[in-house]
Design brief:
There is one protein chain. By secondary structure, this protein is an all-alpha fold. It is built from 8 helices and no strands. Helix 5 runs parallel beside helix 7.
Amino acid sequence: MKFTWLKWSALPVVVLMMGGVALAQDQSGSQSSGQPQSSPAPAAQPTTAQKPDPSIAQRKENQQDRIANGVKSGQLTAGETAKLETKEAAINGETKADRAANGGKLSAAEKAKINGQQNNLSKQIYKDKHNANTAHYGNNKVGQRRENQQDRIAQGIKSGKLTAGETAKLENQQKGVNQQVAADRKANGGTLTASEKKQINKEQNQASKNIHHKKHNGATQGSAKKP
C-alpha cells in the first residue's frame, strides 16, 4: 500500500519533467527550423547619384533614333530636323542644369516635366515624319550630294557621335543650301547654271568638313546622357 502511494505521488513529477524536456526541444526546433527571429538589415540600395534613372537617358536615345531614321528615309527635311534637334538640345540642357543644381539627381517634379517635354517632342517627330514634306532630291549630282550629306548626318545621330545641338547646326546649314538650290532653280526654269552648281558644291564642301569635325570632336550623345 505504501509502495502504491509512492508510485502515484511520483507520477506528477515525471510528467512535469517530460513536459519541460518537450518544451526545450520545441524551442530549440523553432530556432533551428528557420522561423523568423530578428530580420537582418536590408542591403543598402544604390542612390540616384550612383545609378541615374535610366528612363531619362533611354528616352533621349529613342528620340534620336527616330529622328535619325526620319533623316535617312527622307521623311524629315533638313528644316524639320533642325527644329526637332533644337528642341532636343534644349531639353538636354535643362536636364543637365537640373542635375548640376541637385548633386546629380532629378527630383520627381523635374522628371515629370522632362517627360512631358519629351512627350510633346515625340508627337512633333511623328507629325513631321508623316506630313507631305520629304527630302528626296532626285538623281542629279547636286541632289545626290545633298542626300549623301543627310545620310552622314543620320549615321552620326544614330551612332551618338553627333549631339542634338551639333545636328541642329548642321541641319540649319543644309537647310540654307536647299533653299538656295530651290531659289536658283526657280529663277532659271528648273535648272542650275554652271556657276550656281560651283557655288553649291563649295558650300557643300564646307558642310562636309563641318560634319566630319563635329563627328570627331569628342562630344557625343553618350556623354550628354551621363549628367
